[in-house]
Design goal:
By secondary structure, this protein is an alpha/beta fold. The protein contains 9 helices and 11 strands. It is 43% helix and 24% strand. The strands form 2 sheets. Strands 3, 4, 5, 6, 7, 8, 9, 10 and 11 form a 9-stranded mixed β-sheet that branches. Helix 1 (3-15) crosses helix 2, helix 1 crosses helix 4 (59-83) and helix 5 (102-116) packs across helix 9. The longest helix is centred in the N-terminal third of the chain and has 25 residues, at 59-83. It comes from Companilactobacillus bobalius.
Length: 296
């Protein structure tokens, strides 16, 4: 399976029309049709449903599109790393992570690093812990911000300083807004918008205890900004991590007993990394250790 043919496939999937795709790829339509037919034969499945005015992806076609896009990203990353000047620290560093307070600290590290190495650029990929771990494992991400605990067999890491705190984000005119702390009993018969992170789901279930059966779930989310919009519209209150950000018309109320976690900047263990990534890891560890020394 050639990357060139996968790029052909992605173009057809985007355009939903072989003629337009052929024109954009600067190949003839018969040639493109033969390449796709050969790809379908190689994979033993149909990738497209051919209709009168357009073609759409089958279920297998949708899966292949996702994998092909990942392969193209990885190919681009390899080309970038191979073309970098080995005598200087330059190029792209890709970092994944969720919406965490530790992103503020990471941004400070990135800024300080670029002051020394201005030819470095950062690519930030927002996502939950599962997405970030998968990206690191597949080589699509160099590093990631993860909530502890983290497998020491899979990852090396440097611990970030901010504490990640769970609470409820609710409209200021809601019945919950009067509280300074939220206990599980306060959420009985309340409508909530919950994070869809599986690791945190079990922790939150433990915190709720028997009161878990007495809440109403209106929606799940993976990005807080969208959840806040839903809460403002009256869909429910959001169970979320505290961020150093202001949301107009909303109030964050911490949980009691407190539910807090530490986060880490993690990278794949026992792996040879690009020169710019290695330099950034060393820089980040020194930066974080320096903050720890200052706090002693």
């Amino acid at each position: 399976m050639e990357l060139r043919v996968l790029n052909y496939f992605l173009m057809i999937a985007r355009e939903e029309n072989i003629t337009r795709a052929a024109n954009l790829l600067h190949v003839s339509q018969p040639t493109l049709s033969r390449q796709i037919a050969a790809l379908e034969e190689e994979l033993g499945t149909k990738l497209f449903v051919r209709q009168s005015h357009k073609i759409t992806l089958t279920e297998d076609g949708l899966l292949l599109r996702r994998r092909a896009e990942e392969m193209r990203q990885l190919s681009d990353k390899i080309k970038t790393e191979m073309s970098e000047d080995k005598a200087e620290i330059a190029g792209e560093i890709s970092i994944g992570g969720g919406e965490l307070r530790s992103m503020n600290e990471l941004a400070q590290i990135m800024t300080a690093f670029r002051q020394q190495y201005p030819l470095v650029t950062f690519k930030i990929q927002s996502g939950n812990s599962k997405d970030t771990k998968w990206g690191i494992e597949q080589g699509l991400l160099d590093l990631g911000l993860l909530i502890e605990p983290v497998s020491t067999e899979k990852y090396d890491f440097a611990r970030m300083h901010p504490v990640e705190q769970w609470g409820v984000m609710t409209p200021v005119d809601s019945s919950l807004a009067k509280f300074d702390y939220i206990e599980s009993k306060d959420l009985r018969n309340q409508t909530l918008i919950l994070s869809k992170s599986r690791p945190m789901e079990s922790e939150l279930n433990y915190w709720f205890g028997s009161d878990l059966k007495k809440i109403h779930v209106a929606a799940n989310y993976n990005l807080l900004y969208n959840a806040v919009i839903m809460a403002r519209a009256g869909l429910g209150s959001v169970l979320c991590l505290k961020l150093d950000a202001h949301y107009e018309g909303m109030k964050f109320i911490p949980l009691k007993p407190a539910l807090t976690y530490n986060s880490v900047l993690a990278w794949k263990a026992d792996q040879i990394t690009a020169r710019n990534v290695s330099a950034f890891i060393d820089f980040a560890k020194e930066y974080l250790e320096g903050i720890s020394d200052d706090e002693k």
